[in-house]
């Protein structure tokens, strides 16, 4: 991917002990697909390959989204937020994003306006 | 707000030491506005009032979004993700979401597909 070295240096990995949360949004539908975490290495792999990589907090390892399921995420754009501690990946999702088989991980509605 | 007690009980506040990240999405434009954090009390206040409340990790206190700036967020819908450790607030944003004056906190593009 084409990226800005200057903006890359503004990412605050320290605040979250080496990790930043990554919001993943579908490029076409604008739906929120999932939230995962990235360390510096996962972000580097994403920038190098154009496919979303994350860091699994439970397995304590780097993972490429869809490596076993085939549900790859091609990353179109990456944004960082104002204080540099959160990323947004805008992706083309192959198949579904959620391990339950749902398209988005946010398939349960907790509440709505009355 | 109308909410499901059953789904409320599935939120995993323990994983993040009492906090869950909240992705905030604009109801009309589908833009991601910001990511903040909620504890149980902030979520309760949001459900009671219909206005977005969060927990500030730096100030260590509950805050109502827009209380000083006037940039309130009326919450239309709340979703939880598959493993119950992240929330999504879909909101009507008054004014702007970011303290910099930008509409969204994700106004800086780090990278794009080649």
Automatic annotation (TrEMBL), chains A, B:
Keyword annotations: Amino-acid biosynthesis, Cytoplasm, Histidine biosynthesis, Hydrolase, Magnesium, Metal-binding, Zinc
Organism: Balnearium lithotrophicum
Residues at which Mg(2+) binds: 81, 83, 85
Listed name of the protein: Phosphoribosyl-AMP cyclohydrolase
Record keyword Cytoplasm present: yes
NCBIfam families xref list: PRK00051.1 (NF000768)
Main EC class the enzyme belongs to: hydrolase
Its EC number(s): 3.5.4.19
Quaternary assembly: Homodimer.
Subcellular location: Cytoplasm
Main localization, broad class: cytoplasm
Cofactor annotation remark: Binds 1 zinc ion per subunit.
Role according to the record: Catalyzes the hydrolysis of the adenine ring of phosphoribosyl-AMP.
Annotated residues for binding of Zn(2+): 82, 98, 105
GO BP annotations, alphabetical order: L-histidine biosynthetic process
Pathway assignment: Amino-acid biosynthesis; L-histidine biosynthesis; L-histidine from 5-phospho-alpha-D-ribose 1-diphosphate: step 2/9; Amino-acid biosynthesis; L-histidine biosynthesis; L-histidine from 5-phospho-alpha-D-ribose 1-diphosphate: step 3/9
Phosphoribosyl-AMP cyclohydrolase domain span: 34-107
Family per record: In the C-terminal section; belongs to the PRA-PH family. In the N-terminal section; belongs to the PRA-CH family.
Obligatory cofactor(s): Zn(2+); Mg(2+)
């Amino acid at each position: 991917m084409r990226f800005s070295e200057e903006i890359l240096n503004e990412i605050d990995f320290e605040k979250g002990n080496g990790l930043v949360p990554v919001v993943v949004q579908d490029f076409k539908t604008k739906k929120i697909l999932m939230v995962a975490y990235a360390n510096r290495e996962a972000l580097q792999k994403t920038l190098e390959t154009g496919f979303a990589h994350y860091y699994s907090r439970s397995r304590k390892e780097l993972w490429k989204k869809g490596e076993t399921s085939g549900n790859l995420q091609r990353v179109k754009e990456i944004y960082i937020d104002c204080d540099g501690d959160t990323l947004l990946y805008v992706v083309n999702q192959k198949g579904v994003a959620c391990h339950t088989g749902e398209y988005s991980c946010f398939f349960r509605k907790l509440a709505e306006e009355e």
